[in-house]
Amino acid sequence: MMNDDAKTLKICQLNVNKSNTAQSALLHSIADFDIVALQEPHIDFLKNTRASQNWIVIYPTGHKDNEATSRSLTLVNKRVSTNSWTAIPVPSPDITALTLRTPTTLLHLFNIYNPQDNDLVQARLARETRRLLRDDDEEDAQVVWLGDFNRHHPLWDDERNMHLFTDQNLNRAEELIKLLSAFDLHMLLPEGIPTLEAMNTKNLTRPDNVFASKGLADSLLECRTALDLRPPATDHFPVVEWPEFRTKLVLRLQDLPDVEKGIPTKESFNVILDALMNALTETIEETVPETKPPPFAKRWYSKELNNLRREVGRLGRRAWKLREFPDHPIHREYRSLRNRYGDQIRSAKRAHWDAWLEEADTRSVWTVGKYIRAGSSDGSKSRVPALRRPGSTVLEQENEAKSKILYETFFPQPPPDIEPPDDDPFPPNAFEFAHVTNEQIHDACHRLKEFKASGPDGVPNEVYKRCADLLVPILGPLFRATFDLQYYPDRWKHSITVVLRKPGRSDYSIAKSYRPIALMNCMGKILSSCVTEMVEFELEKLGLLPKHHFGGRAGRTTTDSLHLLTKTVYDAWRTKKVASILFLDVEAAFPSAIPERLFHEMRRLGIPETIVGWLRRKLHGRRTKLSFDDFVSELFVILSGIDQGCPLSVLLYKIYNLVLLECANAQNGEMALGFIDDVAAVAIGKTLESTTAALKSYMERRGGAKHWSRTRNSRFEISKLNLVHADPSLGANDMGPPLALSDGTVQPTDAAKFLGVWIDRKLSFKRQAEYALKKGTTWLMQFGRLARPKGGISLRHVKSLYQQMLLPGMLYAASVWITPQRAIENRQRLYGSVGVIRKLARVHRQACIMMTGAMRTTATDVMEAHLNLLPFHLLVDKMIMREISRLCTLPPTHPLHRHVKQAAARYVQRHRSPLHETLEAYKLRPTEIETIDAVRLPPGWRPPFNVSMAENKDAALEEEEKWAYKPGPHVYTDGSDVDGGVGAAAVLLRPGQQPKVLRYHLGSAKHHTVYEAEIVGLVLGVTLIARELSARVASCAADNTACLQASKNRKPHPGHYLIDK
Fold it and tell me: What are the residue boundaries of the Reverse transcriptase domain, all occurrences included (predicted)?
């Protein structure tokens, strides 16, 4: 503890003897300390220690890569400003160091574990100290050495330990004393105070020490051993009362100006907006309680453990006073209580974990799954280390400097010499502008996700979601006024950009290892969501987007792009041609976008100027604050880029890079496939030389990919471009010719990852199968803790996690890289990806053992029967069948539609694509399956009738009794499957008249479903009502919830062709 202008710096130092229990207990005793220096910390097999979100962990340099276990570790309390300290890289697993900056001094603190048998670590310590002092500009820099020095000398040890003062020990201690003298370091812990009690002999010794510069020694308030800290063995969103919240909000909204008559001026707009925001924030302040973080470092810690810790500390102080009497019973009592404290810590951790798993319900089990799948962590708070600019070796330590580097990376300035867009006249508007409706706003509020971080205004999504009926009448006029007044408020342009680490990066000292997430004003995001939905519907309906763009589009998935890619390559092989595939990587795709180019592309598509002008105003004058660690930067101006986190972002980037896909020349055998910012350029030709030349032309010709890159400020990183030559005639070690571009050469590779799947040059997908096996095995290793027979989650939940997390992850895009396993007549062996399925079935078997707790010799089919689980090859079939069935429903506007029809019509003999194999395996014929369009009805659409659905059967009976007394004819409909035949019927009832009945037989249950029959029943019911010419009102009842939902859903789903007709 040191004095500094009435402020103190509290440091705790302890060797925890590698004990997890000791370190866990210590975390609950050190909340008052600023820095904790640990020696021999607990390090698990994944090289993680144990900490909490209250602490930032400093590991030794190269901790993850060092073979030697780290024996020094420093914790910095999160309340210590990250701008006031910097970790010092020291190439040793036994030293961690940091520099603290105060208004009056610079402090270098070294935490050391010094082995008993050599002086290498203290020699390294001396070199690093000398280097720091030599490089410091300040002459008054102070130094602290503390830790487990493992040296014994009469200068600090008690005289009773004469047996430790051997020649060897004294010689090693003398080397340390020479270093202390050279650096003028003074011992802070008084002589004779022991720091270690031997486990067996109970002898008290002094291996730990603290040495500091004279300036710090003069400022010292206290340095002592804290027996009460000796361990054994060495934010949620608050609960809101929403009825009360709504009541308070209604009272405040009554004071708002009337918006029903319109908003005539920008000034009145701002007055209404400010009043609305004040009503929301005041209601939140009045009714929402502040979150109360748990008082303990870990959730499993309890008041009982805290009381026991205090009792251990009390006995420890008494035992210390009686240390001269080793036979005193207080020592046995203290040791017994300390051991009991350790046992209860271990028991509390187990009990808390078991209770958390056992109490998991259908909803929270996914939280458990995500927690486990996230992988290992030390539980501490992360920190952005010193950063350097590209091409520089100078590390910036100050948070202000780091924020500027991150700002320059996330929001690069558009270069001044960018080629301007063509001044060709724009085409007429492709569609008429329509104002945002209140129904659209209701839908947008309903889609908001709960428990997400709020923007600068502090109003979370839950408020708009739960109070939509109160807010939409005000939001509607405000949103429409942004178009009518040609005004976008500055309040909605401000954001907070959170800096997050990209996982798995090797160097976090470069800004590219981080990604920005914009926390924007929720009200502005709701408006953006409405505009996005409106524009996307029109673009899809009119077919204005590139046909080979698959990302973020209705009715399209990543597997569609992969199927088109593989089908194209196989078709080329069948015609004795080859294919070359270039996978492009756009550096900083979203932040690099130039708004003016974006506006030009939107007008070129025929998007009305009203929308483009609104977007121009939205993107102009944006400002953001960067947030990382405990630091929030000053406001930065955003001059370019597309906001990542805005609902418009995906749509805008699809428009921005459409030229990159359109510039592929089909007549030259070129094709470009896109999924947001992932693009694959494919060239088909007779030789690899010709396909390589085609790719070169695609990249470098006028109007090609590089021209797009230069004019859109979207740089291709040559080192990340991947070239795969798909030629079945190439030898094992022959990758084909390289692609020579003007700014570098791209060497061909055996396989490249595209949209999460490894595409190899033979399309054998062996690497993808290995990757899938690795993913499945990793999942099992992580989730094994959940399925223990004692203390795990229920079998039902483990099974759900297996079926809905492991299988979809492991078998992602299986229809592309797995050929269904099936028996073929006159063929002894099974046909298909038998070996791959057998390998992956190992994961399935291990999962069955994990879920059932069966012995390892138990037959797999027995476990499957107990779990009511399909055999693995049938689970694979189920997933592939579902995907291929969807492909059979694609409309003619989809680029795969033609390929699916061709593959279903003819099962080719050579070079069969995944489409050929799967369609043949399941005997699917697209002509016999309904077509589902990509879009159906416009945003905000509501059915011209009211739909009421009862919560359960009893409620339905009660409502039916009331419904029977309503005026007009009453119609009852039904659909059913009887003896393999599917049919529907409807009956119309009017008091005093004979019932009118319509029936329809759809056909066999092999070709039709009860769901279809229920919809046909509704169609029959409406037909009966239409015949009642005198009826002014009518009611129709059905007993199928799915078909009632479908009748009011505007998006396309199976069976909608019946409703639409």
Answer: 481-759
For residues 1025 and 1036, what is the distance between their CA atoms, to the nearest angstrom?
9
- Provide the pLDDT for residue 6: 39
Which pLDDT belongs to residue 4?
41
Q: Which of 764, 576, 565 is nearest to 685 (CA)?
A: 576
For position 268, what pLDDT does the model report?
A: 93
Looking up tokens 């399909």 gives 870
Write down the pLDDT at residue 139. 59
Separation CA 68–CA 881 (nearest Å): 51
Pairing of strands 722-726, 578-585: antiparallel
Partnered with residue 77 across adjacent β-strands are 55
Number of H helices and E strands in the chain, helices first, is 35, 31
What is the pLDDT at residue 705?
A: 92
For residue 671, report the phi and psi dihedrals to the nearest 5 degrees. Answer: -150, 140
**For the chain, what is the radius of gyration of the CA atoms?**
35
Q: Residue 686 contacts by C-beta under 8 Å, 6 or more apart in sequence?
A: 576, 577, 578
Rounded-to-integer distance, Cα 379 and Cα 383, Å: 13
Q: pLDDT, tens digit, for every residue of 36-48?
A: 889 988 888 778 8
Nearest of 555, 530, 559, 546 to residue 654 by alpha carbon: 546
Question: Residue 466 corresponds to which tokens in the numbers above?
Answer: 């739960």
Helix ranges (H only) for 220-265 are 242-253
Which residues, given as ranges, of the chain have pLDDT below 50? 1-6, 233-239
Cα 555 from Cα 889, distance rounded (Å): 10
* Cα–Cα distance for residue pair 230/781, rounded to 1 Å: 35
Residue 976 sits at φ, ψ, to 5 deg, of -155, 165
Cβ(973)–Cβ(984) below 8 Å: yes
Q: At what angle do helices 914-922 and 558-574 cross, to 10 degrees?
A: 100
Backbone region of residue 203 per phi and psi (left: phi > 0; alpha: psi in -120 to 50; beta: other values) = beta
Backbone CA torsion sign across 459, 464, 469, 473: positive
Identify the pLDDT of residue 825. 84
- Apex CA 537: angle with CA 531 and CA 540, to 5°? 135
Helix axes 860-867, 834-852, angle to 10 degrees: 60
Residues 6+ apart with CB under 8 A from 199: none
In contact, 1043 and 1015? CB cutoff 8 Å = yes
User: Which residue bears the tokens 């953006």?
Assistant: 528
Name the residue type at position 777: T
Q: How far apart are CA 144 and CA 214, in angstroms?
A: 10
Which string of DSSP letters, residue by residue, matches 987-1025? EEE-TTS--EEEEEEEEETTT--HHHHHHHHHHHHHHHH
How is residue 434 written in tokens?
A: 């329509």
Task: Tell me what pLDDT residue 3 has.
Answer: 40
693-697 contacts at long range (C-beta below 8 A, 24 or more positions apart): 694/580, 694/668, 694/669, 694/670, 695/580, 695/582, 695/670, 695/723, 695/739, 696/739, 696/740, 696/741, 697/665, 697/668, 697/670
Backbone φ and ψ for 424, nearest 5 degrees, come out as -65, 150
Q: What distance in Å separates the CA atoms of residue 637 and residue 622, rounded to the nearest whole number?
A: 6
Given the DSSP bridges, would you call strands 622-628 and 494-501 parallel, antiparallel or unpaired?
A: parallel
Give the residue among 827, 276, 297, 211 at the shortest CA–CA distance from 522: 276
What values do phi and psi take at 82, rounded to 5? -65, -15
Per-residue pLDDT reduced to its tens digit, 614-640: 999 999 999 999 998 888 899 999 988
Spacing of C-alpha 545 from chain mean position: 28
Pick the closest to residue 112 from 27, 17, 37 (CA basis): 37
Amino acid residing at 64:
K
Nearest-angstrom CA–CA distance, 951 and 1041: 10
The C-alpha atoms of residue 1056 and residue 1061 are separated, in whole angstroms, by: 8
Contacts of residue 347, Cβ cutoff 8 Å, sequence gap at least 6: none
Q: Which residues pair with 106 in a beta bridge?
A: 101
DSSP state of 804: I
In DSSP notation, 871-904 reads -HHHHHHHHHHHHHHHHTT--TTSTTHHHHHHHH
